[in-house]
Amino acid sequence: MKIRYTRAGALLAVISGLLAVPAIAEESREGIVQALPAGTAAQSASAAHASQFLGPNTIPDLVDSVSPAVVNIVSTSPMTRDQATRIREQRNADNARRIRRYFGMDGDPGNQVRTTGAGVIIRSDGFILTSLHVVRGADSVKVTLKDGRSFDASVIGRDTFSDLATIKINATGLQTVKFGNADKLRLGQWVMAIGNPYAYENSVSAGLISGLGREAKAFTQAFGARTGALRFIQTDVPLNPGSSGGPLFNLQGEVVGINSFIRDEAQNIGFAIPSNVARDVGEKLIKQGTVQHPYLGIEMRDPAEMPSGAGLTPGVEVTKVKVPSPASSGGIEVGDIIMSIDTNQIREPSDVSNMVATRSVGEKLQITVKRNGSEKNLLIKIENLPEELE
Question: What is the model's pTM?
Fold first, then answer.
């Protein structure tokens, strides 16, 4: 995946996976159970289990129920001279057609970039959760409700780590979404998305959960997935640019994810931020405008990737130490093997990421490393994740 940002975070050219897109110029459930072959486990399923089967009205009923809490978003930001120059330089490149399709312009300085996406209403007084890349760098943000009403919105909180943002419109009495527990998702479970792909408002698509706990290290430099600390829901629900920030619903009408990006070169491989993360970030952004994320500042290598025999002993190898960072200040060096954190044995990079993620900024970790055959105990003070990572 290739995604380009200015250092300030404004979108340069979306030539892969971000799901924001610049806007150019009855067979009953019971009947299904009864139709199953005699003797199958499903035939004797309870009514609760029967609700997991899709009937002809399952998705339409779900859409009717939840769509008033989903909004369409259009943000406008100025195109800088640097952006225009980059587009002009790539006009004859292999991806020029895609760039022109996304931006719909010749790249003249002064043009504006209009980006579309979706969002979910999380408070009845007008607070909306969406993807940060939908509104990042925007001069103006317009929100349209399902009933056709349109509002100007202001960005009140942003989190580069999760690529989530909260925006606010001047409205009350709005229908809100209900968040489900993404930890209870199962492979093959049916889910539904509502979004604004290519500015086709309130588009509905459905599919299955294809994977859980997926990493996406190549997403963006400032994205938490780069460190492996944020794991995504993978789905085969058809998603397109413009679906960013839209909800992924289970068949109970609960939001289980916020659609974020796609593998552009693939067929129906999309990724969503788990609802547990999205709900927590959204609440903190409303209260604080920002979110603190514990940060260590290292990159690690999985034992399976280490030289033959090296991965047979517990621990993970540090392959990079960011400067400045808590790790560099605390004495961690490239080549160190992290053996344990606070006496908890480390076997893979996710062990480190998970332990850091559960701590608060300012806490100290006792990290035991093996260096040149000797063990060393280091005391590292956790800091907040920088706004932009080098």
Answer: 0.70
